[in-house]
Amino acid sequence: MRRALLSRAAPMAAALLALALPAALAGPFHLRFLAEILLLGTAVMSLDLLVGSGGLVSLGHAALFGTAAYAAAVAALHLGGNLLLVLGAGTGAALLLAALMGVAIMRSSHLFLLILTLLLGQIAWEVAFHWRAVTGGADGLRGLPPLSLGPWRLDGPRALFLLAGGLALAAHALARSFVAAPIGRALVGAREQPLRMSALGYSTARIRLRAMLAAGGIAGAAGSLYPFLNLYVGPQSVHWSLSATMIIMLVIGGVGSLWGAFLGSAVYLALQTYVSAYTDRWQLFVGVIFVLIVLLLPHGLAGAAARWRRG
């Protein structure tokens, strides 16, 4: 019993320490950079629920993330930056879109699912780009009010980092519970043996819908906080290219490993931020690393770390 409790407490203690050290030591730029890693990593982790457990590769996941970001930004501009209001508006909008996407992909798979999610994501981008009265069009939305919770302002880099870290921990716990729950196991079964699952009385369409709702809710919560890192949100946040970037992050970190999503986002954003300061061809480095990961580490960095830990 004591060993089981220690094995559960150790990862949580390590995660809290990983949040406490940067919060105490890092400067404003690095705190915002780490917050971006945590928020995008949370969105990538939600994508892993679909890809890793269900084999449902989506090119429309950025639409969930970006729609939440827009909804949160619009709510903040009109009603103020209350944290609970912003989270509720963004997550609710993402859940609504996830329900629509889930209904559309309930009976799709493989290439048809990929194309369908791409088209749905492109529709979301068209709305964000052309509905200038609400979304600001190509200029996006700027000048957002700072986040607040009651009398406390949450606009400083340290507060935003801790918010992102708290959200990442809560989202990871929720995603882990989903994977371990019967619905998560049924999702894996629907991926591996869809005919057998149907013969046993399971509705693969409903399983996929529930998975999309879970992924949409987590991605929406992350997207709700994302605009407040730079007090801006633009149409690139819903573009399919961001969905492709999330897939790259997921593969680098390790498909099927929830915490690997944060590794993948950290590697990608570090290359984007630091290598791009020296060359415009930073994406070449991303491509090389991606190919090496696929060839040499098919389970990603998280899989390699797990093998190293086991000896």
UniProtKB/TrEMBL annotation:
Q: Where are the transmembrane segments?
A: 59-77, 83-104, 111-131, 209-229, 241-270, 282-306
State the compartments where it is located: Cell membrane
Asked if the Swiss-Prot or TrEMBL record annotates the protein with the keyword NADP, the reply is no
- Note the coiled coil stretches, chain numbering: none
Membrane topology per the entry is: Multi-pass membrane protein
Going by the UniProt record, its keywords in alphabetical order are:
Cell membrane, Membrane, Transmembrane, Transmembrane helix
Q: What is its main location?
A: membrane
Domain of life, per lineage:
Bacteria
Write one Gene Ontology MF term: branched-chain amino acid transmembrane transporter activity
Give any Pfam family that matches.
BPD_transp_2
GO terms for CC?
A: plasma membrane
Is the keyword Transmembrane assigned to this protein? yes
This protein's name = Inner-membrane translocator
Q: Which organism is it from?
A: Teichococcus aestuarii
